Each structure stands twice: as C-alpha cells, then as structure tokens.
Amino acid sequence: MKETNTNNEIDELLKKIEDPTVENIKDPSLCPVQGCKTKITLTGILCNQCEKKYCIKHRLPEDHSKICKQRINKAEQQQFKNESFHFIAKERKESGSGNKTTMEEDHIALEKKFKSQLKKKQNQRKKKTSKGKKK
C-alpha cells in the first residue's frame, strides 16, 4: 500500500515537471529546464506552445517538453489534413470522378507526402540545433 502511494506521488511529480503550464520555482532568469543553469536574460527564446523562455540549447519543443512536442506534432498533422482535404477536393473537381481506386491512390500519395514533410521539418529543427552546438 505504501509503495503504491509513493509511486502515485512520483507520477504526479513527474507530470508537474513535464507540464509546461506549471510554473517553475527556479530563478526566472535561468532556463526552466530541470538541471539547466543557463541565464536567459538576453538570449532567451520564447516557445510558441508553452509561452516560456528557454536557453538556446532547449529552445526546441523536442528539447524542453514532451507536451510541447506533442502539441507541435498535432498542429502539423492538422495542417497537413487540411491541406490534403483541399488537394483531394480540387483533384476530384478537375477529374470529375469519384472512383475508389483514385481515392486509395490519393491516400497513399498523401501519406507519402505527409511523411516526407514530417521528416523535412524534423531535419530542419535538428539542423538548427546542430548549428548551435559548436565546440
């Protein structure tokens, strides 16, 4: 019984640490990432998702919070779905057919396009990170 209480307490603490809405008790002039002691007075970068300032090392959602990373992924997926819907509707109007094989082909083509765009965005973020890491 005592172990489950401590496990629940640990889980709650982990949620609070990862939750970008929970204010950090640390000095506000320091990066809010646990263990980071970089000052962010002039070089702090504001995250669009959680509205917090981070140091250059933790500026990307992938680097500072799982929740921000999930929000970014959901936003990119939603944007892609919206673009895909308009693309399919436009193609249907031009071709004038509602053929099932065409729909399947469209789905496969859009899935490939989504995966390539997702990789492209991830690579862009990684390139930005690697440029900042000079020794």
Structure explained in plain terms:
With 135 residues, the chain is mainly alpha-helical. The chain has helices at 2-18, 61-64, 66-95, 100-132; strands at residues 45-46, 53-54. The protein has a two-stranded antiparallel sheet. Helix 3 (66-95) packs antiparallel against helix 4. The longest helix is centred in the last third of the chain and has 33 residues, at 100-132. The relative contact order is 0.08.
Please summarize what this structure is.
The chain has 135 residues and is mainly alpha-helical. The chain has one domain. It has four helices and two strands, in the order H-E-E-H-H-H.
Low-confidence stretches: none
End-to-end Cα distance, whole Å, is 50 Å
Radius of gyration: 21 Å
Shape: elongated
How many domains, in number, for the residues? 1
Q: What is the residue-averaged pLDDT? A: 78
Biggest beta sheet summary: 2 strands, antiparallel
Number of strands: 2
Q: Helix/strand/pairing class, anyone?
A: mainly alpha
Total of helices: 4
Give the helix level as a range of percent.
55-70%
Name the beta content range.
under 5%
Protein name: AN1-type domain-containing protein
GO molecular function, one term: zinc ion binding
InterPro entries: AN1-like_Znf (IPR035896), Znf_AN1 (IPR000058)
Pfam families: zf-AN1
